[in-house]
Structures are given as C-alpha cells and as structure tokens.
C-alpha cells in the first residue's frame, strides 16, 4: 500500500458534516415509535409505524431529484459548494419536524409538514452522499482511498449512534408519556443547531485538486450533465446494481433492527435500542479496517464476501433474531449481520467514485445511487412491515437475500477499481511510470 499520507483535515471536515446530515436523516426513524401516534392516532401500533415508514420512504423518492440537481451542482460549482448547500437544506428540514403540529392540534396537516420535511431531507441527502463520497475520494492519494472514504460510513453510523445515544438518555430521564408528548422533538432541535456549526466548518474546507484541475481545463457547459452521464451508461447501471443488495441489507440491520427486536422479538424498547447502539458502535469501528484492507487486496473481494454472506445468511440470521430473549443473544446475532454488511459499506463510496471521470463524477455517483436507494433502501422498512402486517414476516428475509444475489452477480463480473486514476495528473504519473518500465 502507498505510503502517502491521509489528509486528515479534509477527512474530518467532510465526516463531521456527514455525521450531522445522517443524524438528522436517521433520527426520524429512531424516534418514530414515539411520535407515530402524534400524527396518526388511529389503528394498532404496526399500522401507525407503517404510516411513518411510508413518509420515511417518501424522502428516499426525492433522492434521485436531489442526486441530479446537487450532483450537477457539485460537478459545476465544486464539491465544497455542494457540501455546504446540502447541510443547509438538512438543517431546515430538521427544524420543520421539530415544530410540526400534532393531529390533536391541526388534524392531518401535521403529517403534511412531516412529508414536506422529509422531501427536503431527501433532496439534501440525495446530493450529500455523492458530494461526500467524491470529496473524500478525490482529496486522498491513491493507495489510501479505501481507508479514507470508509469514514463516510463511520460518520453516517456515528450520526445514528448520536441519535440512539440521545434516545437512551431521554428514555432514562423522561417518562414514556413525556417522550410521546414532546420529548421526541428534542433530537430534531439539536440536529438543526448542529447543522449550523457544520455549515461554518464546511465553508473552510479546501476544494479537491481533481476538481480544480477540471475547473482550469474544461468549460462549465458540459460538466455534470445528463448527456455526459449517458456517455457512461454502463457505469451508471453498475452503480444501481451493486447498490441494490447493499442498501437493503444496510437498512435492515441498522434502521429497521430496533423496531424488529421490539415488535417481533418482543424485547423492551430500551433493550432493543441498547443492542442497536452497541452493535453499531462496533460496526463503525470496523469500517476503516475494511477500507484499509481493500487498499491492499482490492475492492471486489470485499464486495463478493458481502454478497455471499448476505445471500446465504439473512434468512437464518433474521429468523434467529426474531426468537432472541435477551441482550447478549441479540447483540451477537446483530453483529454477525453487520460484519457481513461491512464488506459493502466500507468501500461502496470509493468504488462508485472510481468508476467515473472528474467532469461527471459527482452526478455519476449521485443519481444512480439515489435511484437504487429510492427503489430498495427507502422501501426496505416499509416492505418489512408490510410482510409482518400480512402475517408472512419471513418473506422479507427472502427478499433481502434475493437482492443480495442480484448484486453478487455484479460483484463477480465487474472490473477492479482500486488502481483507477482520478485526475489527469495521476494518469500522467501512471503513464510516465509505464514508459520507464
């Protein structure tokens, strides 16, 4: 592996912003069990969660639009400018949820406010993933990109951990009645304030050399356009296919896991939350290790390991998790699932960025990834609850396995991307070395 240094200032700056973005995104589902009745008072608990899960999915369907608009913006105006804009949108959406009126006050208008907030979040996150992935990848020397880009999922998971940690604190300091009434608003207020701090941090980031190089040598007109993306149709379709299995598995073992342990396994909410917190903390620590490993052995071996593990392991793992009776068993099984998912999460961002040239890299990552997430990631929780509501819960486990099987075929046939040159300077250096040999 290359001895080149990791640019920690860029990695930390991008990751801290990503943490707040994903804290706001995930805290919605973390606290849904408390605010569902505030906006949907009729029906049983599963029906209420179905309604909030449907609104959660709505945010995902805005992600392709956000991926297109903000991916184009990142390719034309710069990675730094796009990162600043996405966190601004996320702050506004968190504030909207924090002040949303309840059904008791204004009827279903409160649910409408939730939908608007989720639409803004979807727009923001649709661009955030690509801007962050592109920035972290371009800002890091070849040979260290897998390690550096893995911090995208470190920060994503850290954001979720902050949300879960806050939930644990509130569960132990507030009554259930207070949480259901107003306590669930607290994390959204914190998210909005945190985003304001990140706005300042991101304004002081340096632009990547790859983008600066493109800015000097290529006119704006052709950058970040659909026409340019269509010149790389194969790569765009590849992003959709390789994301399919990974995003379903990721949301199954992260955002849906707490609900599954609570409503299916019958664990107390507090125990289910603690299991998720501990499992996600270990999962977060695994990301740089796996990312660094990919710099040594390549990206494909990790993706293939994930594909096989998820295809064969989901049904027995989820079945066993549905029968756990305590913290220890639930934690061990959850960790097994998350270790498998690490093969995808630790490197998926860098793989996608390495597939495209600089002039369309952010859009090439953003739009296909957002489409895959809208179709498979955003609907995962809703599909899971639909299967449960129709008394065929195990059908969802097979659905996850089938998605992983499709992605596995892609992993087995795609090219290795580890040594891709991401700029003209890198390509020139590579050509010079080849000429000397």
TrEMBL record:
One GO CC term, this protein: plasma membrane
Domain of life: Bacteria
Family (UniProt): Belongs to the major facilitator superfamily. Metabolite:H+ Symporter (MHS) family (TC 2.A.1.6) family.
Cellular localisation: Cell membrane
Signal sequence bounds: none
Major facilitator superfamily (MFS) profile domain location: 10-419
Protein name per its UniProtKB record: Putative proline/betaine transporter
Transmembrane segments: 21-40, 52-70, 82-100, 106-130, 151-170, 182-201, 236-253, 273-290, 302-321, 327-351, 363-384, 396-414
Keyword check for Transmembrane: yes
Key word Signal present: no
Topology term for the membrane: Multi-pass membrane protein
């Amino acid at each position: 592996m290359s001895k080149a240094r990791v640019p920690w200032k860029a990695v930390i700056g991008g990751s801290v912003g990503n943490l707040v973005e994903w804290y706001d995104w995930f805290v919605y589902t973390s606290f849904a069990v408390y605010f569902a009745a505030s906006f949907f008072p009729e029906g049983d608990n599963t029906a209420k969660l179905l309604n909030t899960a449907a609104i959660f999915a709505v945010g995902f369907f805005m992600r392709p639009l956000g991926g297109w608009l903000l991916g184009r913006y990142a390719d034309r105006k710069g990675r730094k400018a796009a990162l600043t804009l996405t966190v601004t949108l996320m702050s506004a959406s968190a504030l909207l949820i924090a002040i949303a009126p309840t059904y008791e006050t204004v009827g279903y208008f409160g649910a409408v406010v939730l939908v608007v907030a989720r639409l803004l979040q979807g727009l923001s996150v649709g661009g955030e993933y690509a801007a962050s992935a592109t920035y972290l990848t371009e800002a890091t020397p070849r040979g260290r990109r897998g390690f550096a880009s893995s911090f995208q999922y470190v920060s994503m998971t850290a954001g979720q951990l902050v949300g879960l940690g806050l939930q644990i604190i509130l569960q132990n300091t507030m009554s259930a009645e207070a949480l259901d009434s107003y306590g669930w608003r607290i994390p959204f207020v914190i998210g909005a304030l945190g985003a304001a701090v990140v706005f300042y941090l991101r304004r002081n980031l340096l632009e990547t050399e790859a983008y600066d190089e493109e800015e000097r040598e290529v006119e704006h007109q052709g950058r970040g356009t659909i026409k340019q993306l269509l010149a790389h149709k194969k790569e765009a379709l590849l992003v959709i296919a390789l994301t399919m299995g990974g995003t379903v598995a990721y949301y199954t073992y992260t955002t849906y896991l707490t609900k599954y342990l609570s409503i299916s396994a019958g664990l107390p909410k507090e125990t289910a939350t603690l299991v998720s917190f501990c499992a996600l903390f270990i999962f977060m620590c695994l990301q740089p290790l796996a990312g660094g490993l990919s710099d040594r052995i390549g990206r494909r071996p990790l993706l293939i390991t994930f594909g096989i593990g998820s295809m064969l392991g989901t049904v027995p793992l989820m079945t066993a998790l549905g029968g756990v009776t305590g913290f220890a068993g639930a934690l061990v099984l959850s960790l097994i699932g998350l270790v498998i998912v690490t093969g995808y999460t630790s490197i998926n961002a860098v793989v996608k960025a390495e597939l495209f040239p600089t002039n369309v890299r952010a859009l090439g990552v953003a739009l296909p990834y957002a489409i895959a997430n809208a179709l498979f990631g955003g609907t995962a929780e809703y599909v899971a609850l639909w299967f449960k509501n129709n008394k065929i819960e195990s059908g969802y486990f097979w659905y996850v396995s089938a998605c992983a099987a499709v992605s596995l075929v892609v992993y087995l046939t795609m090219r290795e991307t580890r040594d891709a040159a991401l700029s003209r300077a890198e390509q020139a250096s590579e050509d010079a070395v080849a000429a000397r040999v």
